[in-house]
DNA sequence: TAAATAAGTCAACATGGCTGACATAAAATC
DNA sequence: GATTTTATGTCAGCCATGTTGACTTATTTA
């Protein structure tokens, strides 16, 4: 209705396109995490555990503070899941070589195994989507997702992901 | 390190590409919901309320069972947020015309206002990402996201979104 | 008339965010 | 060398939102 007054008819199409992105993002994100959630439940874990496993697998030796920066949660929230992962033998903490206050994080063999199991189902789904959509679509997928990330978020992930 | 032993160099690129999609999806989804979450908090609402507002705005007159089907949550979970939205005057429930057991959902003026406020910030961010990425990228974005959705999920959203 | 369906409700539990306060060890600074 | 800052950990409690299970009411369908 605001559209009628605004006199910019192209806005209709535009809004429809924006809404489509918003909804697809919601449904895709949900289904992308569906199977991993079921697997995690077998272990008494949740999505938060998965994130820790993912980023520790991604950057072995990651400091706790670095992980906090990536996840953008409080240390109390992280502590809860990290503690469980360490106690159950999925994550190992060493003492920092340069700075002995730090506790660099590593996956144990058991942790690597679970991480691979979880990421396998996500990678398979992602691979299927890539295959169905084609290489050009994949490049566009990355570009738009990157554009959705906050300015400081883009900065924070620079070490992980180069600008697509 | 496992990679060095595996001897399948083509796998590197592929896995890197899949991981990139997985991580970008995580960061983009998080930031996409950041500002709306803050706005919702002003009203004492959460993301679940936003979803209800979104889909009721999207399909006025939606039956409760249809909303449950789209959101894929239990009616007890929905009940909690729907009740609040109705009590606080953001959502209105009528009695179904054809089937009087149904309670078609509509946004009140107040509800529409909030929904527009929430969707505005998401649409602005999405528009910025579209603009930065270009029209071709947007098409690819849709195609890959669609491919990430479960087979039955694709079915369920047919009424909302045509296959990109 | 009986059975199925749409919606609502109560209770209890789990996950994973949050704030606030405080403790310890190590590094950095004065 | 003493002090301050930093990295990490911990306790306690709150909130939002998902779950299961059991049960009710009104209405439609068979």
Describe this entry's structure for a reader.
The structure is a homodimer of 164-residue chains. Residues 1-10 of chain A have low confidence and may be disordered. The first copy, chain A, is mainly alpha-helical. Chain A has helices at 2-6, 10-42, 47-58, 64-71, 75-87, 109-133, 135-148, 151-156; strands spanning 91-93, 105-107. Chain A has 8 helices and 2 strands, in the order αααααββααα. The first copy, chain A, is globular and about 55 Å long. Chain B binds a DNA duplex (30 and 30 nucleotides) through helix 5.
Topology:
The structure is a homodimer of 164-residue chains.
Chain A: H1 2-6, H2 10-42, H3 47-58, H4 64-71, H5 75-87, E1 91-93, E2 105-107, H6 109-133, H7 135-148, H8 151-156
Antiparallel strand pairs in A: 1-2
Helix pairs in contact in A: 2-6, 3-6
Chain B binds a DNA duplex (30 and 30 nucleotides) through residues 45-48, 63-65, 73-77, 79-81, 83, 96, 99-103.
């Amino acid at each position: 209705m605001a559209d009628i007054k605004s006199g910019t008819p192209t806005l209709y199409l535009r809004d429809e396109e924006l809404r489509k992105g918003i909804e697809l993002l919601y449904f895709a994100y949900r289904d992308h995490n569906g199977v991993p959630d079921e697997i995690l439940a077998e272990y008494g874990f949740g999505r938060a555990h998965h994130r820790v496993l993912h980023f520790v697998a991604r950057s072995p030796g990651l400091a706790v503070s670095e992980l906090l920066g990536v996840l953008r949660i409080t240390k109390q929230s992280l502590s809860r899941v990290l503690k469980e992962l360490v106690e159950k033998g999925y994550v190992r903490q060493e003492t920092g070589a340069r700075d002995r206050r730090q506790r660099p994080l590593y996956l144990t063999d058991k942790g690597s195994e679970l991480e691979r199991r979880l990421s396998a189902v996500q990678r398979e789904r992602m691979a299927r989507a890539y295959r169905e959509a084609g290489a050009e679509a994949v490049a566009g997928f990355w570009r738009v997702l990157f554009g959705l990330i906050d300015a400081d978020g883009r900065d924070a992930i620079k070490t992980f992901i180069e600008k697509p």
